[in-house]
Write a structure and sequence with these properties.
Number of helices: 11
Radius of gyration: 19 Å
Number of domains: 2
Bound molecules: pyridoxal-5'-phosphate
Structural class: alpha/beta
Order of helices and strands: EEHEHEHEHHEHEHEHEHHEH
Strand order of the largest sheet: 1-2-10-7-8-9
Distance between the termini: 35 Å
Shape: globular
CATH topology of the largest domain: Rossmann fold
Strand content: 15-25%
Helix content: 25-40%
Length: 291
């Protein structure tokens, strides 16, 4: 099944405070190729088709939403897929087991080898019919794929808020906003301690009218604690929308704190971009919090 952005509705969600909040339900694009995964991969797929690519190699951590989405998309497109996974071989997790169902071949590289991953690709797959997509779909095509999200909005929000890690999605969102001359402020919530790098990349591109709001990393990438998990459990039950503790749970919690702290002017129309990746919730270490 190919992804379909027609499912990714704008859903109004009642929240305390004097702002109006909608959620862009990009999590509904596809069960595995969801949210920013599809947006970042869409231009790569188009380029792969144009160039007659038969094999895609990508890279990431052992719990990578991006790798699984790439494997699933490649399978639908009839392209073979290899993932270079950072670190020593680990016991199978749900990402790898599902990826393997889609024909994904996993290669584990130690940290040093992983740093040289492009070299690995050139040595092992020197042919022209291979495309390499870097960690998280980063790169110009990944950015370009996120720009068109604005065409799916029925109004121009005052603010758009999203979880950020490599910053690729936010760059694409800003690019698309400026191409369309929209006034929306874009607010990124870093989910790891890399705000300076993300900031430098955005400043280098010369974008304006954006902020990165820190203090919501909860100790760092993929770290979770009792209060995040309790918050997520309650919000999943209240809204019937799934969040994951790595990305969207932290960003949704940030939006609640910002509304509580009167970060926005009264009447501000805020869109929260649900970037998908809800499979992240189903890791044992997170589910154990629900016991
Ligand atoms: C669910 C989810 N949200 C947000 C992000 C952050 O996206 P980016 O790395 O483009 O900043 C990711 C990573 O790709 C993700 O999987």
């Amino acid at each position: 099944m190919m992804p379909d952005t027609g499912n990714a509705v704008l859903q109004e969600i009642p929240l305390p405070g004097n702002c109006q909040v909608w959620m862009k339900r990009d999590d509904l694009i596809h069960p595995l190729i969801s949210g920013n995964k599809w947006r970042k991969l869409s231009c790569y797929l188009e380029a792969a088709r144009e160039q007659g690519i038969r094999h895609i190699i990508t890279a990431g951590g052992p719990f990578s939403n991006h790798i699984l989405a790439t494997a699933c998309l490649c399978s639908a497109a009839g392209i073979s897929c290899t993932a270079l996974i950072r670190g020593r071989q680990q016991p199978d997790n749900h990402y790898r087991l599902i990826g393997a169902r889609y024909g994904l071949v996993s290669v584990f590289l130690n940290h040093e080898q992983f740093e040289q991953r492009l070299e690995w690709v050139n040595i092992h797959h020197p042919g022209k019919d291979v495309m390499f997509i870097d960690v998280g779909g980063a790169g110009d095509l990944g950015v370009a794929g996120c720009a068109s999200i604005w065409d799916e909005f029925s109004f121009v929000p005052d603010a758009l808020l999203l979880a950020t890690a490599t910053g690729t999605t936010m760059q694409g969102v800003l690019m698309g906003r400026d191409e369309r001359k929209l006034s929306t402020k874009v607010i990124g919530i870093p989910v790891l301690m890399n705000e300076p790098e993300q900031r430098a990349a955005l400043e280098a591109k010369g974008y304006e009218n954006w902020t990165l709001e820190t203090g919501f990393e909860r100790g760092g990438f993929a770290r979770a604690d009792e209060s995040l998990m309790r918050f997520m459990g309650a919000e999943i039950q209240r809204t019937n929308i799934l969040f994951d503790p790595v990305y969207t749970g932290k960003a949704w919690m940030a939006l609640h704190a910002m509304l509580d702290g009167h970060f926005f002017n009264p009447g501000t129309r805020v869109v929260f971009l649900h970037t998908g990746g809800t499979l992240g919730l189903f890791s044992r270490r997170y589910l154990d919090f629900f016991r």
